[in-house]
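We treat protein structure as text, and this decision shapes the records that our systems exchange. Because each token names a local backbone shape, the row as a whole describes the fold. For reference, a complete record is included directly beneath this paragraph.
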Amino acid sequence: MTKKHGSDLVGMTLATVGVVFGDIGTSPLYALNETKNSLGGKLSTENVFGMLSLFFWALAIIVTMKYIYLVMRADNKGEGGIFALLALLKNGNGNNSSDKTVIPKRSSKWVKVILPSLIVLGACLLYADGMITPAISVLSAWEGLEVSSKAFHPYIIPLTYLTLFGLFAIQRWGTDRVGNLFKPVMVVWFLVIGGLGLVQITKHPEIIQAVNPWYAIQFCVNHGSHTWIILGSVVLCITGGEALYADMGHFGAKPIRTAWFAVVYPSLLLNYFGQGAHLLSATADNGNNLFYAIVPKDLLIPMVILATAATVIASQALISGAFSLTRQAISLGLFPRLKIKHTNADHEGQIYIPFINWTLFIGCILLVQKFETSSALAAAYGIAVTGTMAITTIAFMQVAIDRMNWKPKVAVPICILFASVDLAFFGANTLKFWNGGYVPILIAICLFTLMYVWQWGRENLMLKAFTSSYSTSTRPRFTVQMAADLIGSKKSVGNHQLFLTSNPVRRLEDLVPLTLQLHIERHGKVPEAITFVTVLRSNNPSYYHTEKVILYQKDGCVIKSIITNFGYMREPEMGKEVEAQFIHRDGDLVVGEEFFINEAKNPFFRLAARLFSLILKISAPAYMYFGLGPQVKRLVKEIIPIHIGKKGDVRISP
């Protein structure tokens, strides 16, 4: 058993090297080179030592101490990522009675409103990161051809386009196949870049002295205000660090930590220090790409090919992360429903979302077309990464106090230390705002607006309409008992119909879904067999539970309810549940289709309502997202006209 466990750890560690560390592992292609360029002029020994010292301590503080040692402790039932922090902070355990997470007694505006909004903003910045990473990584890899010959310059952007298209085109085959195909490449990549750096270090072993933090302090003092510009490039060495936490649920904390300390961290340090050692050489050409400058000429073309393969894998990790992020956001009610395809029957986490995939592809192409070089695109990179990292630190502090029982006098100073570094890097990157830094901010604002409007519409239009229209005695809501009284009468018809409902139906006194009431009011008939289907969400990421309730049964007529409760890392398999529970193998599915009559005078309210109506039209129908469709023989739509009055009052029209 021990041997098997050890072999599993080795396998998971190697898989982690190939997926989790792809982004940070390809940073040597451009990070130190951009920092060198931000200095300008000839490099002195003090400057080289200072840059490397900043790199060493940035990796040590942000990646090793913050993410590896601290943040990865804040898991939600083994799942990580910024939405895991949101789930931990949400008041309430969802609808899962078995969720034993301790709920903080505090319900301040900071915990309930402000911090969750910050976390959503951080997630939006991660989407921007996922769009920029493939563009800058693939572009920087192909730029290595220019080191061999300037004649390759006209082909760099077309090759980048072609590589990006191939990368996004193969996503539909699933990350498992792609990962298995390229998994050994990243192991070779880290060994090669570490070896290249080691060769240079042996030529100038004094470069090891740069681990002394005094060189970093001296460097910052000597460059004064110009340090902020330089820090904007230094941050490129830690891009991808946030992936350690996001992918924790897929691989586990131990394989990630093992891969970092055994393979990734040593290789990165060796390569960065090797590039620094090359700069100390009298023959160093500061005009060349620094990464490829330490590659022997005979190995240059093979290295470009290896680097391209590595960047494809690095991009794969961010694209897969965007899929997972979207699924979590949909399950948490933060994002419109989208079509999700499962690509591996054995691993539920491996999914493909066509809309997100091709949206990212179009974004990557537009970024390459606009910026043309990895150096220019680097300006857009840092803000997304550092913004997410700063928000993660703030959220972790609250989780540490509320959920991990840390004392504030311990949690606050530690997190202030990390936040000060995060915000220093973020502040440095804001100086690049007009040079490209506005791109991730613009992307994040658009996504945040979409998520906000989606939530706002569901709560302030849909919920209010359904509540206000049936709050008077003139039009009372039907209960299950009222529907049962009609079954078997002349108004009943001999078919089986399903109705989706957002509220669980467990008793005869409970209200039936609006679609059933409208169906009865408009057609004057009630089916002899009725099934209510309710899907609830739990804060426990992997939780899945289904209950069946028989509400009424007499003379072959039946009313029952199927209630499924699932975590945000899972999908409800309602098709299978319904097929197993049906009296008949198939039936009619009755769904509501909202139609908005917008007469609001407030311009902001009117615009928000229009945006929500548009989002609702392009989002996948609830029954498709929940896995229903093949199990029903006919889809019946009931139009639900929602009237928005001049003063913003909302009701359902007759």
Remarks:
- The chain has a mean pLDDT of 81.
- The longest strand covers residues 526-538.
- The two ends are 67 Å apart (CA to CA).
- The chain is about 60% helix and 10% strand.
